[in-house]
Amino acid sequence: MKITILGTAHPYRGGIAAFNERLAHQFQDEGHEVDIVTFTLQYPGFLFPGKTQYSADPAPTDLTISRQINSCNPFNWISVGRSIAKRNADLLVIGFWLPFMSPCFGTIARIVKANHKTKVVTVLHNLIPHEARIGDKPFAKYFCGSVDGFVTLSKSVLDDINVFDHLKPRAFSPHPIYDNFGHAVTKSEACEHLGLDPDSRYLLFFGLIRDYKGLDWLLDAFERSKASEPNGMRLIIAGEFYGDGEKYHTLSKSLGIDDRVVWRTEYVPDSEVRYYFGAADLVVQPYKSATQSGVTQIAYHFEKPMLVTAVGGLAEIVPDGKVGYSVAPDVDAIAVALSDYSTTPHDFTEGIREEKKKYSWQVMSQTITQLCQKK
User: Fold this and answer.
1) In terms of Cα–Cα distance, which of 127, 177, 143 is closest to 306?
2) What's the pLDDT at 47?
3) Residue 184 contacts by C-beta under 8 Å, 6 or more apart in sequence?
4) Within a 10 A sphere around the Cβ of 188, how many other Cβ atoms?
5) What is the band of 135 on the pLDDT scale with cuts at 50, 70, 90?
6) How far apart (Å, rounded) are the C-alpha atoms in residues 135 and 157?
7) For residue 375, is pLDDT > 60?
8) HSE on the CB side for 78, CA within 13 Å?
9) What is the DSSP string of 268-299?
10) How far does the chain reach from its first CA to its final CA, in angstroms?
């Protein structure tokens, strides 16, 4: 097949860019002809809460990525739509995560479909955002009306589609494992690289820090648990603040745990990811709401046990007692699990290795290509 992927990719950073690039590699490995069309302007500066939208990592040399889309310019959407339509691709895959992109993506998709050749399938990372904004639902409705089918990474997003569409084909395919961050390193190598004590045990909170990800819950639970005792564990917080970071520092100090917290609150480039997971003993995702998370799939790649709250699709991919803990979304439940892990010997390795077999990129690519063939 001839396939175009529309969405964020290098030079833009983040998990969805990594997803689109890894999906393109999978399609290429299967013999398809693939290109990615990404942005010249992804977000206006005032809408972006981080320090930079751009990756410091080198561009992939084995992918065709062209920067064409201006998310704010309707005339651009028309020209990009016409350009993609002329390619007469068999399939346009749109990586969707935010209703702000609906006018742009929805207009391009409609123009492309007018060639009566190209099918449009969207991979929905999110449909209804964790942090709601005015206009989200009409924008999402506009986008849903522009595609031929939906693939979701969690069952909760599959349910969300029903708000906007009941007829078009759809499929759930779990988020595949992020295996593009290099090979695992030993704990001693990771700690030496990061300047950490290799004799300590570490919890890891990883990724962009946003309110819905529950870092405040984790700090509170860490203080309540035996994990924070002198012979317990330390907590690594690795990721950039999207919003007010000072409130978390203030909370950590007021709880009296700041001497056991390692703050690495800068964006973690792809080349550094393996070191943080190499140092970690347990990856903790205390989310207040969620659909799915790429962090769990990085943890699977590096075969690290996880503690997640049972929100969205997290419990679907982190079976409690097999690969770690899936607990109620509250501070007490998180604290109990942290205490258990810090005081009781656990080895989840066998369960992780068995469970990770479910999350292949081949399953994802086949779900997409099969969906585009349905009426």
Assistant:
1) 177
2) 61
3) 274, 277, 278, 302, 303
4) 12
5) confident
6) 18
7) no
8) 3
9) --HHHHHHHHHH-SEEEE--SS-S--HHHHHH
10) 18
